[in-house]
Amino acid sequence: MTDPLLAWRGEFPVLNRTLYMISHSLGAMPARTRQCLTQYADQWDNRSIRAWEEGWWTMPVTTGNLIANIIGAPPASMVMQPNVTVAQWIVLSCFDWRGIRNKVVSEAMNFPTNLYILGELDRLGARFVKVPSRDGITIAVDDMLTAIDEETQLVCISHVLFRSAYIQDVKAIIEKAHRAGAQVVVDIYQSAGTVPVDVTSWQVDFAVGGSVKWLCGGPGAGYLYVRPDLVAQLRPRLTGWMAHASPFSFADDPIDYAGDMFRFLHGTPAVPALFAAKSGYEIINEVGVDRIREKSIRQTTRLIETALAEGIPVRSPMNTEDRGGAVILDVPNGYAITQELLRRDVLLDYRPGAGIRLAPHFYTTDDEVDEVLRQIVALRDQRST
Ligand SMILES: Cc1ncc(COP(=O)(O)O)c(C=O)c1O
Fold first, then answer.
1. Which of 241, 318, 332, 372 has its CA 20 to 30 A from that of 299?
2. CATH homologous superfamily, domain 288-384
3. pLDDT digit string (tens) for 247-303?
4. Domain locations along the chain
């Protein structure tokens, strides 16, 4: 069977040098990225200060538009941020946590940055409710729904859990939150670019994510989506001069917020990171997330079936609808095996309490899927004898 998605393999030089199974952590660099970074350097060198009005100034929104198409957001509804941590704080800083409606609900398997932030929010008056996992792989949707009540102001969830690749039922959670009068911020870092996301049909209030993983955009290019009808009423406390309606008037405080997504900016954006990120978004748009998802399901299923046949416990959902792009294998001596594989240029990672994480992406061949498992099994057998 020919795989049409392998046509993009040539765009990623690292695939010729490594066995690349780490897209859940760091997507491969497109060859075009090198040209984009040269373009950035040329503009800085040749156009100097004029580069700001020739494109740099609006890049937080124009770059966001390239992601908007991938996650079902309308144009001009996204703004680039340095990372999820900052984007998340911008959202949280829009709310007052001193009233009766001061609960913030999240899941225990959310990414640590989100949990650390929510844990500190009590100093501003919030009550943090963390819904536990019953099995270390999933979060029961009923447990999430029960935790959301009339005192909940915000629900902060990950669409796909980084530790197990479990896909949460975000639609059910958003519906319940809205019925209870709460809003929802969803972290789509582990889904955007591999699992279909549609922020518009979800009617989610906020979405945050980054580009390091499935979007192949590298570090420094986080993003924030805000539901367009909410923008005008939000006043982020994490703010700065670029969020002002007319920043170059350098007006006295208080701030007069911009009416558009610039409202959620603060200081000068990381322009080189935005240049670096563009190529990844272009390629994901060209390939299309539906095709990526179809292939991902096929290859993660292949990985899981082989692992189970070899007696390796799988720490990701078995059901394809519940599973994102990564597979987590509970291999004895997982850390040591990962170190040996990295030494051999087989790229994957190990997470304590989870196991060896590995992920094919649209550029992965079936032979690579088989080969990585073959090497893991051989190392496991070698170590157990
Ligand atoms: C779900 C999720 N959120 C956030 C992050 C990272 O946050 P930040 O962009 O602040 O580094 C990761 C992984 O690095 C992640 O998997």
1. 332
2. Aspartate Aminotransferase, domain 1 (3.90.1150.10)
3. 999 999 999 999 999 999 999 999 999 999 999 999 999 999 999 999 999 999 999
4. 33-285, 288-384
